[in-house]
Design goal:
The chain has about 250 residues and is an all-alpha fold. Helices cover about 60% and strands about 0% of the residues. Helix 3 crosses helix 4 and helix 4 packs parallel to helix 6. This is SAP domain-containing protein.
Length: about 250
């Protein structure tokens, strides 16, 4: 990840963790971090990989792909399922998380399957074996329920799984969930803001409307009115204005 890929909010968090000033625009924040430590971006990337299991899995795939790209071989052939332990179905199982039939996880899991297939040039048989080896609970019961599933191509098998497990909420439901997310008593404004943005990304919401929606989620009418009068243009301005405020009482809007 490049330094400019981080949001202003993330950069300010990195600075606070190091007891550095959080003032200035994005370029100032990046420069301040680089002056603090030339290796700061490597450290932050490694930390995010450790904290995020999904990112860790994808990073393992990337590293293995890089090793294969830069390792001399006796022939010009591309890596295949027979190229060694890491390219075997057994070796790749450790790079793919299990899927138990959770509807909210199918799309991400399918992307991992396709990434492994494309990175290691797996043929259809190897891909199908890899898929079936990582199914658990409801997903495995579904796969075992029809003998025909075992002979489907990997592409068709993923399509059938999508029909069964990829039933995400409608846009209307997602938008209602987004609009109903309020800033809760005892919760920091930054926690509320991050959660609100994650919900917004699922719809998505236009960038120029985000700040208004975030303000709408503030239950205190006086604070809402003050925020609107400020006419905030940047999210970091809104966060700075609210970061030291703690809500008390009910989260219901006044």
């Amino acid at each position: 990840m490049n330094p400019t890929d981080y949001s202003v909010v993330q950069l300010r968090e990195f600075l606070r963790a190091r007891n550095l000033s959080v003032s200035g625009v994005k370029t100032d924040l990046i420069q301040r971090l680089e002056e603090y430590s030339p290796n700061v971006w490597t450290e932050l990337r490694q930390r995010s990989i450790i904290e995020d299991p999904n990112e860790r899995e994808l990073e393992l795939v990337r590293r293995e792909a890089e090793l294969r790209t830069h390792t001399p071989t006796t022939s010009a052939r591309s890596p295949t399922i027979n190229d060694g332990e890491i390219s075997s179905t057994k070796g790749l199982k450790d790079l793919l998380c299990e899927f138990d039939g959770s509807r909210s996880e199918f799309r991400r899991w399918k992307q991992q399957v396709e990434l492994l297939r494309d990175t290691y040039h797996l043929d259809d048989n190897a891909t199908r074996v890899l898929i079936s080896s990582r199914l658990k609970r409801k997903a495995l019961n579904w796969f075992d329920s029809k003998p025909e599933y075992i002979v489907l191509s990997a592409t068709n098998l993923l399509e059938e799984m999508g029909r069964m497990f990829d039933h995400r909420p409608s846009k209307l439901t997602l938008k209602k969930e987004f609009e109903q997310r309020m800033w809760q008593p005892g919760e920091s404004f930054l926690e509320y803001y991050h959660d609100k943005i994650i919900l917004a990304n699922r719809i998505p919401i236009a960038n120029d409307e985000i700040i208004d929606y975030v303000i709408d989620g503030v239950p205190n009418s006086r604070l809402r009115d003050q925020a609107r009068l400020q006419r905030f243009q940047e999210a970091n301005e809104l966060i700075e204005a609210f970061e030291k405020i703690t809500l008390k009482g009910s989260s219901k809007p006044e």
